[in-house]
């Protein structure tokens, strides 16, 4: 997870510098998606038994938002809601020996904050109150 989080954090930081680093969205984002994000929107940690964390999903939402990739944003969000829950997210999902499922239903506040921030910003960017409402619900749950 540490390597995946570092890759996501580095990618998001590069994107935050705007036009100085225009190529991350054009070159790095497609490669990142192809390597780490399943077709249905799950961010996969290949170095940690292919588990998924709420933090990874949140970072990926932010990267999709910055790269104006609404289709992938929606896939990541849908996967997160369907598998980690709505509101506060379960922080760890993976294979329990029999099924792919939630491995730890406790939330990780950083993952929740990343989801909420991405949703609020997506609501502004794409003029979608559904995103804004979902982001606000997460913030209210964190309170």
Please specify the SSE layout and strand pairing.
Layout: H1 2-16, H2 23-36, E1 52-53, H3 54-66, H4 70-84, E2 90-95, E3 100-107, H5 109-125, H6 129-142
Antiparallel strand pairs: 1-2, 2-3
Helix pairs in contact: 1-2, 1-3, 3-4, 3-5, 5-6
Largest sheet data: 3 strands, antiparallel
Query: Which structural class fits the helix and strand makeup?
Result: mainly alpha
Q: Return the average pLDDT rounded to an integer.
A: 89
Q: What's the number of helices? A: 6
Instruction: Identify the strand order in the major beta sheet.
Output: 1-2-3
Architecture overview:
- The protein has helices spanning 2-16, 23-36, 54-66, 70-84, 109-125, 129-142; strands at residues 52-53, 90-95, 100-107.
- The chain contains 6 helices and 3 strands.
- Helix 1 (2-16) packs parallel to helix 3 (54-66) and helix 3 (54-66) packs parallel to helix 5 (109-125).
- A 3-stranded antiparallel β-sheet has the order 1-2-3.
- The chain is mainly alpha-helical and 143 residues long.
């Amino acid at each position: 997870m540490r390597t995946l989080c570092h890759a996501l954090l580095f990618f998001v930081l590069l994107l935050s510098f705007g036009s100085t680093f225009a190529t991350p969205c054009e070159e790095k984002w497609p490669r990142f998606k192809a390597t780490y994000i399943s077709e249905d929107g799950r961010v996969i940690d290949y170095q940690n038994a292919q588990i998924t964390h709420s933090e990874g999903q949140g970072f990926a939402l932010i990267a999709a938002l910055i790269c104006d990739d609404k289709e992938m944003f929606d896939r990541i969000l849908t996967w997160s809601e369907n598998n980690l829950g709505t509101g506060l997210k379960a922080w760890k999902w993976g294979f329990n020996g029999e099924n792919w499922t939630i491995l730890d239903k406790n939330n990780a506040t950083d993952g929740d904050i990343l989801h909420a921030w991405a949703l609020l910003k997506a609501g502004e960017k794409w003029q979608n109150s559904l995103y804004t409402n979902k982001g606000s619900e997460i913030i209210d749950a964190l309170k």
